[in-house]
């Protein structure tokens, strides 16, 4: 077992134009419209809260009150998928259409980024044909080039480095379940991958403590760890890095895992399954967590990652989490394309 614990005295950041009063009142002090979302590292605490507030507001007004909100009428989104996905495609297509917009799905058979046409040219072409792009790609550098060359917002639908739209759904799910986010402890037990990276770039901004267990050799990127340490220090949260799953789970409110073998890693499957032995989340793992512990998984799930007893238990939030992919992508797109102000009271974070 090798662990490192980073904590600091409480330090609150308050940026000019992002004060609590302005945020709570819905004042237009947030420069979200027209921006891209490649990583939550680029978003402040108050901006992330604003995205979640808009998402919760749309969910309430549309799902609970059956309101029709054609906020994106006349707008279109290009959805570039180098990697397949159930949740990302369905949430974006249905969510964008529900708001009156038109989604255009582009697979690798429709568009070959950097092959038949350069990413630079693709970005400029799409900027004249649609209002926003969501790209699910292998390399994060592809997103960076698209964002650099496009004159419209680019959303990271997943890359090898980050998966920000998944984490927004996770935060909304936890906020709905616990009533607030600040003070929660999330335990990540699994691979040091893109989903974990997105947690590390945002959790501290919401007052969430992180306890991370990865096998040796599967740790998060060093640059991500460095930034997560800085954020933890700035926001007064704790960051634990260990190779012991039980140590990570100890005292946690939320247990989280993800696939051990991502798309493109199929040749590593046997070795990865061997290296991750002992990392399956079970009720025994939860026995050292808080009495109110819950479970998240971004899906698709394999049984070696979490057993049925946990996955299908009342502690599992995986299906509300999957549904919230739709509401949070809707909240994100509305925030990047419009000046929408939430109608429900400010959510507690």
TrEMBL record:
<dbReference type="GO" id="GO:0005759">
    <property type="term" value="C:mitochondrial matrix"/>
</dbReference>
<dbReference type="GO" id="GO:0004585">
    <property type="term" value="F:ornithine carbamoyltransferase activity"/>
</dbReference>
<dbReference type="InterPro" id="IPR006132">
    <property type="entry name" value="Asp/Orn_carbamoyltranf_P-bd"/>
</dbReference>
<keyword id="KW-0808">Transferase</keyword>
<comment type="similarity">
    <text>Belongs to the aspartate/ornithine carbamoyltransferase superfamily. OTCase family.</text>
</comment>
<dbReference type="GO" id="GO:0019240">
    <property type="term" value="P:citrulline biosynthetic process"/>
</dbReference>
<dbReference type="GO" id="GO:0016597">
    <property type="term" value="F:amino acid binding"/>
</dbReference>
<keyword id="KW-0055">Arginine biosynthesis</keyword>
<dbReference type="InterPro" id="IPR006131">
    <property type="entry name" value="Asp_carbamoyltransf_Asp/Orn-bd"/>
</dbReference>
<dbReference type="GO" id="GO:0042450">
    <property type="term" value="P:L-arginine biosynthetic process via ornithine"/>
</dbReference>
<keyword id="KW-0028">Amino-acid biosynthesis</keyword>
<feature type="domain" description="Aspartate/ornithine carbamoyltransferase Asp/Orn-binding">
    <location>
        <begin position="183"/>
        <end position="335"/>
    </location>
</feature>
<protein>
    <recommendedName>
        <fullName>ornithine carbamoyltransferase</fullName>
        <ecNumber>2.1.3.3</ecNumber>
    </recommendedName>
</protein>
<dbReference type="InterPro" id="IPR002292">
    <property type="entry name" value="Orn/put_carbamltrans"/>
</dbReference>
<dbReference type="Pfam" id="PF02729">
    <property type="entry name" value="OTCace_N"/>
</dbReference>
<comment type="pathway">
    <text>Nitrogen metabolism; urea cycle; L-citrulline from L-ornithine and carbamoyl phosphate: step 1/1.</text>
</comment>
<dbReference type="InterPro" id="IPR036901">
    <property type="entry name" value="Asp/Orn_carbamoylTrfase_sf"/>
</dbReference>
<keyword id="KW-0835">Urea cycle</keyword>
<comment type="subunit">
    <text>Homotrimer.</text>
</comment>
<keyword id="KW-0496">Mitochondrion</keyword>
<feature type="domain" description="Aspartate/ornithine carbamoyltransferase carbamoyl-P binding">
    <location>
        <begin position="35"/>
        <end position="176"/>
    </location>
</feature>
<dbReference type="Pfam" id="PF00185">
    <property type="entry name" value="OTCace"/>
</dbReference>
<dbReference type="InterPro" id="IPR006130">
    <property type="entry name" value="Asp/Orn_carbamoylTrfase"/>
</dbReference>
<dbReference type="GO" id="GO:0000050">
    <property type="term" value="P:urea cycle"/>
</dbReference>
<keyword id="KW-0809">Transit peptide</keyword>
């Amino acid at each position: 077992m090798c662990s490192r614990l980073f904590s600091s005295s409480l330090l609150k950041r308050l940026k000019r134009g992002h004060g609590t009063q302005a945020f709570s009142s819905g004042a237009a002090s947030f420069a979200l419209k027209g921006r891209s979302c490649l990583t939550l590292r680029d978003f402040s605490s108050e901006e992330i809260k604003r995205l979640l507030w808009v998402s919760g507001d749309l969910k309430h007004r549309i799902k609970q009150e059956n309101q029709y909100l054609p906020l994106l009428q006349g707008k279109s989104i290009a959805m570039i998928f180098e990697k397949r996905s159930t949740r990302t495609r369905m949430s974006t297509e249905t969510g964008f259409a529900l708001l009156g917009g038109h989604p255009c799905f582009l697979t690798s058979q429709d568009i070959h980024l950097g092959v038949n046409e350069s990413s630079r040219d693709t970005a400029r072409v799409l900027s004249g044909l649609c209002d926003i792009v969501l790209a699910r790609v292998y390399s994060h550098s592809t997103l960076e080039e698209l964002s650099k060359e496009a004159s419209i917002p680019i959303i990271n639908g997943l890359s090898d480095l980050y998966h920000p739209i998944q984490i927004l759904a996770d935060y909304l799910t936890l906020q709905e379940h616990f009533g607030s986010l600040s003070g929660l402890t999330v335990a990540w037990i699994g691979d040091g991958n893109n989903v974990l990276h997105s947690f590390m770039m945002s959790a501290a901004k919401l007052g969430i403590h992180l306890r991370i267990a990865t096998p040796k050799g599967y740790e998060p990127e060093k640059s991500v760890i460095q930034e997560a340490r800085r954020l933890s220090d700035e926001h007064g949260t704790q960051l634990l890095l260990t190779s012991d799953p039980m140590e990570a789970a100890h005292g946690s409110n939320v247990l989280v895992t993800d696939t051990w073998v991502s798309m493109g890693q199929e040749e590593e499957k046997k070795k990865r399954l061997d290296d991750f032995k002992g990392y399956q989340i079970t009720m025994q793992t939860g026995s050292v967590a808080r009495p109110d512990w819950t479970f998240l998984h971004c899906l698709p799930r394999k049984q070696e990652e979490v057993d049925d007893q946990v996955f299908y238990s009342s502690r599992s939030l995986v299906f509300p989490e999957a549904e919230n992919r739709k509401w949070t992508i809707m909240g994100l797109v509305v925030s990047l394309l419009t000046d929408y102000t939430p109608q429900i009271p400010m959510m507690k974070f």
